[in-house]
Amino acid sequence: MGSTIIEKIITAHAPVDHVNPGDIVDVDIDARVARDFGGANVVKNIRENVLGIDDPEKTFFTFDCNPTGSDQKYAANQHICRIFARENGIRVFDINAGIGTHILIEEGLAYPGSTAVSTDSHANILGAVGAFGQGMGDRDIASAWSKGKIWFKVPPSARIEFKGEKPSGITPKDMVLNLLKKFGASSLLGYSVELYGDIIDDLTLDDRITIASMATEMGAIVILIPPNKEVLQFCESRSRRKLEPVFADPDAEYGIKEVIDLKGYSKLVSKPGKPHDVVSIPEEKVWIDSAFIGSCTNGRLRDIQAAACVLQGRKVAAHVVLKIVPATNKVWEQALEQGYIEILKNAGAMISNPGCAGCAAGQVGQNGPGEVTISSGNRNFPGKQGQGEVYLAAPDVVAASAVAGYITTPDNIPDKIPPRTFPKDESTKRKRGASGKVHQKDTVIRGRIWVIPQNDIDTDMIFHNRHLAITDRSLMGKYAFGNLRGYEDFSEKAQPGDIIITGKNFGAGSSRQQAVDCFAELGIAMIVAESFGAIYERNAINAAFPVMTCEGITGEGLKDGDIIEFDMKTGRITTENKRVIKATPFSDVQMDIYNNNGLF
Q: Are 520 and 471 in contact (CB under 8 A)?
């Protein structure tokens, strides 16, 4: 039996001759990265655990979350990282460089067949060049910095082939929104996805980055796109080496195989709250207050060019603010040289220095309560890009909407902008509770349960990104579920020893460790979910916080307040009336880390 791309890459970086889905192996990491919001915690882990740096030449900081220096906590964290970098000979791509994952590609540090980890949950963007990138929490990154490797569970692979002619006007962002519409947030959960077809072969590097960057929103480990000649030449010129791209064997085995006809694709938008809540462009006017073009998904030169083509000779509507943030300094300079910056400025856009922008709450792109934004970003979780509502769309749709004042496409911009009707401003309040005690550890846990029968509870709902700069765990518990509707007062009502029962894809989204540590600080004994977001599960395991997977657990008739017993070794769940439910027991790795009181 042949191997898939991910199986070949992992095998080449592990002390084994072959791997299969489900195998757990130590993987050598070619590029080990910490960003400005997670970097200070990485440094803290290194220092507190008296760890060394395996190879400074493969270790990097990227400051992309807050390149404007507008937040004191970010500034403090960045300075901690700079000092540590000076002491250990680590290279810093500072606030003038741009988005870290893009920098890795531009600098030739990520290339076909290579491996990279970062505190960025969109590190899988490196699948655009056929590399295996993975977002991880600060414990994982600190361990990778110290050992040069990290354990990883080999994912199953999916193969998606595109056929047919792509309809006119369909962009790579439209393609990935159509994929989200089909697969949702969890159908590809935990899979390494490979893309094939003539349309894929013809994609530029910018196009590939757009598609690969939204693997996280589909729950996938990575979207791997086999490099074409142009991409390979680009990577060779940047890495200054002859490269051998990794391709799947003809007889490779896939857990999912799909053939998609492109002729059914159309221009789409994601409705506020969920990237996978994808619909056609609304026929009724959805007025906007602001528009954003940028992020790791659509901050490339091709995206800025698309916006400039729409905005050439036009003006942004008087009631709309258009914010544009190039992904890297190189993209910024290219846009300037080719005249796009002048076009955008003349149209009334505000253009910032390169970085992540509003997605990371550290730069332009945030919106206020009641504000409606259309964005080219990859996420629109509640509160992710501010306190307003965020629609996701392709850059050309964002630019057209900025001109019209409401969501529309480039071929439907009216000659005369209609009058705007303004909605009422509504704001929300969140209660914050006090922290509790750390729970007592045991391999058999008995406790009172909270049943939260929701799927796709993301990390912004669990621990909002406005608190990302917090590194003191004793301050985290009061923010647990502070952005989950109906559970804003969870920290006030929860008791040490309580257990959370919930649905699929719990912990989707960001790589933030705080989304695990806030529950540990409250004294929550365990979380049992039908499935977990890949990064969240790793963070919990590495923190020795008990998490257990149990398919269909929310349909077992359990209710709030029931007392349930969980056996980590056997996976047995025993109810008050002695009914037994079978869950997935701890793996050897999870049990070892649990007994060790954490990864370190």
A: no
**Topology alike, domains 5-264 and 444-595:** no
**Tally: H helices and E strands in the chain:** 19, 25
Nearest to 104 by CA among 62, 150, 146: 62
Which CATH class name applies to 444-595?
alpha beta
Query: Model confidence over 207-264: pLDDT tens digits?
Result: 999 999 999 999 999 999 999 999 999 999 999 999 999 999 999 999 999 999 999 9
Q: Which residues pair with 160 in a beta bridge?
A: 195, 258
Confidence category of residue 102, pLDDT binned at 50, 70, 90: very high
**pLDDT per residue over 554-585, tens digit each?**
999 999 999 999 999 999 999 999 999 999 99
Of 86, 84, 80, 130, the closest CA to residue 105 belongs to: 130
Query: Do 234 and 139 meet the contact criterion of CB atoms below 8 Å apart?
Result: no
Q: Are 350 and 363 in contact (CB under 8 A)?
A: no
Q: How far is CA 69 from CA 72, 94, 95, in A?
A: 8, 11, 8
User: Measured on CA atoms in the order 122, 123, 126, 131, is the torsion positive or negative?
Assistant: negative
Local confidence band at 364 (pLDDT 50, 70, 90 cut-offs): confident
CATH fold group of domain 5-264: Aconitase; domain 3 (3.30.499)
> Rg of the chain's alpha carbons, rounded to an integer?
23
May I ask the CATH architecture of the domain 268-412?
2-Layer Sandwich (3.30)
Q: How many residues does the chain have?
A: 600
